[in-house]
What does this fold into?
Amino acid sequence: MKAKIIGTGYELPVYEADNQYLSTLVETSDEWIRERTGIGKRRLAKEETTTSLATGAAKKALLKANVKAEEIELLIVATITSDTETPSTACRVQAELGAVHAVAFDINAACSGFLYAIHIAESFIRSGIYKKALLIGAETLSKLVDWTDRGTCVLFGDGAGAAVLAASEDGGVLAQSVGSNGEKWDVLSCMGRAINNPVHKGEKELGYLKMNGQDVFKFAVRTVPMCIEDALLKADVKAEEIDLFLLHQANQRIIQSVAKRLKQPEEKFPMNIERCANTSAASLPILLAQMEEEGRLHRGEKLVLSGFGAGLTWGACVLEW
Ligand code: UT7
It folds into this structure.
């Protein structure tokens, strides 16, 4: 049995901040941000939360898939910005949806989170344990960003995307290639609460996102083509046979470089980075849902999804839509 995406949805915060607005906060410019990243604007949460964005995206995906919340057996939220340390965002979304029969939990794999969620759910579906899963990537990165650091604050945005994965005889996930390298954990990190208890007084201040941008850039342009090639090999599909490559939207130049390394035309690599920026685990499902909404995905077409980010983590998946 294969695992097939049968419906997608996305939800973005209402407030839109363009590059011009950011240039009032830090020393930067629309020209620099567009040239180095391809980003023009991003949505920032005001009243919205990770839970509300995730719930909104999930409702649309369920509607599109024509699946009732009670039918969902597995509910995974990929996020690094849960509203609550505990319970998980997944449990709160479960309550909002009334997905009473689902086992619900979060996973933390940063920008590769949605790929990791597919990796987990596909195994459950292929083995016959579950037939329907709801996968969500949801983030409010804006609360982890240091808004005085121009090297990171211009890059990120908030949002959520969701997909319903169901057991199917035809189509669906053909192969995956997923990996992690914890030795490079400090290339992109955000410290959590310090130890602070009756026997040890730690730091009081909470951490913000810290990144060595160039190291992440180099990692991405080397590793992403390698893991895509590995997934293609496992699927016995050639790059030329792939209709679309949907990559994590971190930087337009990274995506262009991957296209070049795979010797594939840039037109096969759709982007929404100009309007959504980098929404971490939400970026792939948002892109996927926007593509479906725009009627740009057709049944039978072959797609590659690929994500990469903090951990370091990465993953690629070949699927038939
Ligand atoms: O989901 C994964 C998350 N992260 C990523 O994917 C990030 C991957 N890395 C990148 O996208 C790029 O490395 C960045 C966009 C972060 C930076 O681009 P870059 O071409 O690697 O620039 P750089 O870090 O080498 O900085 C070049 C210059 C520096 O000034 P000097 O030293 O040459 O005077 C920076 O201080 O640009 C400066 N700079 C800025 N200038 C205006 C850095 N950020 C900004 C800014 N506006 N926002």
Remarks:
- Residues 213-235 form the longest helix (23 residues).
